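Example 3.2
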Amino acid sequence: MKINRRNIQGKTPENSRPISSWYRSFGSYLLIAVLLAGLLAGCDSDDVGDTYYTFTGETMGDYIANRPETYSEFSRMLELGGVMGLLNAYGKYTCFLPDNEAMFNFYHSKGKNSLDDFTADTLKKIAYDHIISDFIVTSDEFVDGFLPNLTMSGRYLKISFEPGESTLLYRVNTTSVIGARDIEVHNGVVHTINKVLSPTENTLIEAIAADDDFSLFFEALIATGLDRELLPIKDETYDPGSLYEEREGTFYPIGSIIHVPKERKYGFTALMENNATYANAGINDLEDMKEYARGVYDLMYPEDASITDITDRRNSLNRFVAYHLINKKLSSRLFIEKYDNTGQFYESRGETHSIKTVDMFEYIETLCPNTLLEVRTLRTTSEYNQFNMIPESGDVIRLTENFDNDAVNGVYHEIDNILAYSQAVDRMISSKRLRMDAASFFPELTNNNIRVGHATPDYPSEMWYFPRGYIERLKTSETTNFAYYNADDRFCDYQGDEVWLQGLYDFEITTPPIPAGTYEVRFGYQPTIFRGAAQLYWDGKPTGIPLDLRIYASEPEIGYVQPGLDPADPEGFENDKMMRNRGYMKGPASFKVINTAWYSGASARMSPAALRRILGIFTFNEASTHTFAVKAVRAGEFMFDYLEFVPVEVLEYEDIY
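Structure, written as tokens:
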């Protein structure tokens, strides 16, 4: 039986701590007992069972080399691959360490007899498959699915759990069982495993083709020609140039380490029904699927109902298959969970930017032209990854337990029902406020492991600079430095992150597609004295007078009054109306700052340093993308947190969240 760890973790408010949420107390007492036992016995402190080891005093390299009876083969591989020196150096590492028997079995599975039969480059890659650099990942941080930190070879490790004789068995990449966990060494932590990790080298198309449970979807994928959309792996022409040499590893004064991406990878996600799910819906072959697709998409797009060429992007079957595909590599946690749990100290303090009584929504563009997929939380049941929920009917799509199936350039997940962009889904999405985090606009941030971020106590945030042309949906002038801050506890930002520029910037962003309708469009930002002023444009037209980003909400020009301070207006609703008349709104009450070094307030609504500028009311005659452009009129900083699209019929009863 497979334990559904996702349901276990959903029972607590701190949904990203599944393991620690139910045995942290026991583990803490066990650790104390082990420490005392080690001190009293005066013996080697790392021989204490299969979990929670005490500090050995050795580097990771020393730990491996000093136990030749168990790890001599991996130790020699590190030497031959030129990696041992790294594990003896200062730094932070996590190593999943296979024993000698695992190494010998690996040689034989590859038709080899010893390490000498592999090239040095191959050995280096194998070693890198087992090591996470810069982060110490203990078993408290294990989740059912991909770990958030990539290995040194640039791959995700998938953790899974199943019941053993007396405790849970932990597995890595399905096949390798973890033995001893949390062996603390001077520069990291070691987890022992009984099988060498060998991530698949299949592309996403090859991985789907090899899984017989999805043979019908794969047949449709090939027949429509959409498989060709999922082939790219890496932009071989990308060169970070001098920007990398100038900025990588430098620091911004607020304590952020600066990075420049070394690579430009592509990534894809497939959400797929298996053959049995199709059969339950009466879909047993490609002709049945065509008929089902016509029943959905000919209603949505009657003008295209006569298109029978299934390779045409307007054809109903083509749209049906394409709506299952996304041009981002999204593990189960990267649909929405990780953004809901941003916060450097989340694991230890349980604090995040999100206010966990308010549902969060993420909107993802699919390969079906001009369509969105909604992903939401469901606070009432502490669930994530609720796809296209229709509240009136209760219809919703969820992941099954068959999720996070890895490939070189993507990942696929099984879903529990038929996914389609129906009229009901279109009505649901086009009749509510759409709040889109700035980072969600750019697939490159997800595909190159940039969006989530990996802040440490030494570096409260990461700041990424991008060469011109790196981000496809962004146009910038020669004088524009475009950067992105990962989530920082000190920012009063939605999801904790922000797009950031400085100087005389001039840029244009293409948004995800927005359904047809009439919307009030808003720009979310944080004012500070370091900002400049900018003219904002929507679809090429200026939106009012330039915005001075130095002016806090409490200044007379805006007139913010914190809710609760005016006895005549305790909820702040009258103040809301006055601010709207001036073109502004308070921040939402759905997120907050964590570290109050710079900002305070129980939520963004309670802070004069969180604002929304109303760009105007616009009518979109059809579902399509749009452009949001910014030109500096006064030098200084500029930040972009999120955009909101609010149907005008919603304005009268819109909530404060």
